[in-house]
Amino acid sequence: MSPRKRKALGGDETIVAVITPPGEGGIAALRLAGPNSRTIALKFLRSSSEDPIDLQPFVLRYAEFVAGDGVSIDEVTSVFMPLGRSYTGLEQVEIFCHGGRQVVRMILDELIKSGARPAEPGEFTKLAFLNGRIDLARAEAVAEIIASGTESSFRASREHLLGAYSEHIDNLRNELIKITAEVEASIDFPEEEIRAADSDELTRSLSSIGTSIHELIESYSGGRIITEGFTIAICGRPNAGKSSLFNLLLKQERALVHEVPGTTRDYISEWIELGGVAVNLIDTAGLRTAGGKVEKEGQKRALEIVSKSHLVLWVVDSSVKGWERRCIKDVKSLRCSNILVVSNKNDLVRNNSSSLDKAPAPITVRVSCQTGFGIKELKHNLVARISEKMPDFTSGMVVTSARHKKKLAEALTHIKASRRKISADDSPELVAFELRQATTALEEITGKVYTEQILDQIFGKFCIGK
Fold first, then answer.
1. CATH of the domain at 409
2. pLDDT in tens, 234-252
3. What CATH number has the domain bearing residue 379?
4. Where residue 52 sits, what CATH number does that domain have?
5. How buried is residue 307: exposed, middle or buried, by Cβ count under 10 Å (0-12/13-18/19+)?
6. Which pLDDT does position 97 carry in this prediction?
7. Is 224 inside any structural domain?
8. Predicted pLDDT at 3
9. Do residues 55 and 92 touch, judged by C-beta distance below 8 A?
10. Quick check: 281 and 246 in contact, CB under 8 A?
11. 3-class DSSP state for residue 173?
């Protein structure tokens, strides 16, 4: 299906869903959205005198919810939002009842029996997009906010929801449209063909737009950390104290610790939060030439994890004589650019200063997993390493979506192609084609053009009730 312009959606269906998390709670909320929302709700809402109540816009009303068979289910409050002034843009009623599972289920069943259809995942937000309440990038930010589990992920999604990011994309789109109009003028009016001076100006303008798009693409490396987390692999030779360090950072006895080398045969992964960022902490099998078939498979997986990690903590037993020389050799063999050497078991070392002077090139942090010495300093170091990879949240110009990155890359490819065609003095039609393709790619980010497949992919990830 080719991209098409967005059109408002009214529809003749009324949909309903519970919009609070499942399970028991003090309050639960249900949302009706559609042309019959008010009519359906009024069938069940009764005043204390058992008379029907009137729902005025944005006035919270107390009532009893009385089922179709006349049995009172619960005391509720409700609010009515008229067409064009609700989250979805449609006529909408929200009902707040006690948060018991059975109460919620009974009220929901009555609303469905009265003509409302169960909402699909993300359908309320999809309606908000289709009715022009929010653009597609801001709709995706709604899902990001719901899924955010750390301060950084919340801040990034909040900035997207506030709209600065969408506005920036729209500004780039508008600049492309202006340039396209200039190029197309030479198609409609051959006497206005692109002159050399105009060609230089167009190229400079496109270069500026391309730079802005490239910066957005580059921000995705940090944006991806926000959405997917920062991965730290704990590696080293057997019995260096990797699992002990893992447990200390995790603040629980998650990994088995034993004096026998090769205890960890496979990796263990857990999530922690450092500096407001979700960190995937991985305890890997000890790396050595010895070991059985199972242990060697664990070592193979450990090396695979190293290659995919943002940071590697190489743990060494500093109580063993000559650890510095072996550490330098081990670190070089990893061929990893981001390594922090953690010198463990310093409680067993008498002269720490001389040992540290011989430390390998990567920054070495001294710790003792037995006494807790150095762990606070290590955490500060980890937060600093993570912060180096994080983007600036204040601008709101952080790309966190793989879909957005792909569309930005498409736009940049077509912009570069248009510049080459202008420099080569190619036909204005060919230049205009590339510019229109770039514009369409940007419009698919905010949803000015879209396909049903795009909407299904985006809103299918939402939960029911949002």
1. 1.20.120.430
2. 998 888 888 899 999 988 7
3. 3.40.50.300
4. 3.30.1360.120
5. exposed
6. 96
7. no
8. 45
9. no
10. yes
11. helix
Q: How far apart are CA 354 and CA 341, in angstroms?
A: 16
Contacts 24+ apart (CB under 8 A), 384-387: 385/311, 385/338, 385/340, 386/225, 386/230, 386/274, 386/275, 386/277, 386/279, 386/310, 386/311, 387/275
**Full domain range(s) for residue 423:** 149-219+400-446
The gap from C-alpha 426 to its chain's centroid, in whole angstroms, comes to 41
Q: Are 155 and 395 in contact (CB under 8 A)?
A: no
Q: Which residues of 245-270 are buried (b: 16+ CB within 10 A; e: fewer)?
A: bbbbbbeeeebeeeeeebbbbebbeb
Same domain, 274 and 198: no
Q: Indicate whether 71 and 197 sit together in one domain.
A: no
Average confidence score pLDDT of the chain: 85
> What tokens were used for 245?
């360090």
Contact 450, 440 (CB under 8 A): no
Six-digit token string for 421: 């065609």
Is residue 300 a contact partner of residue 230, using CB atoms and an 8 Å limit?
no
| Residue pointed to by tokens 């029911």 | 464
Q: Do 356 and 364 form a contact (C-beta atoms < 8 A)? A: yes
Q: Which of the 8 DSSP states describes residue 53?
A: -
424 and 361 housed in the same domain? no
Task: Report the amino acid identity of residue 251.
Answer: K
Tell me the C-alpha to C-alpha distance, in Å, between residue 280 and each of 56, 272, 283, 399. Answer: 50, 7, 10, 21
Shared-domain flag, residues 258 and 205? no
What pLDDT sits at residue 7?
Answer: 42
Q: Are residues 252 and 309 in the same domain?
A: yes
* pLDDT < 50 stretches in the chain: 1-8, 196-197, 255-258, 260-262, 264-265, 354-356
Q: Which amino acid is at 280?
A: N
Task: Count Cβ atoms within 10 A of the Cβ of residue 289 and give its class: 0-12 exposed, 13-18 middle, 19 or more buried.
Answer: exposed
Instruction: Indicate whether 204 and 262 sit together in one domain.
Output: no
381 shares its domain with 407: no
Model pLDDT, residue 461 = 83
Whether 220 contacts 399, CB under 8 Å: yes
CA dist., res. 101 & res. 181, Å (int):
59
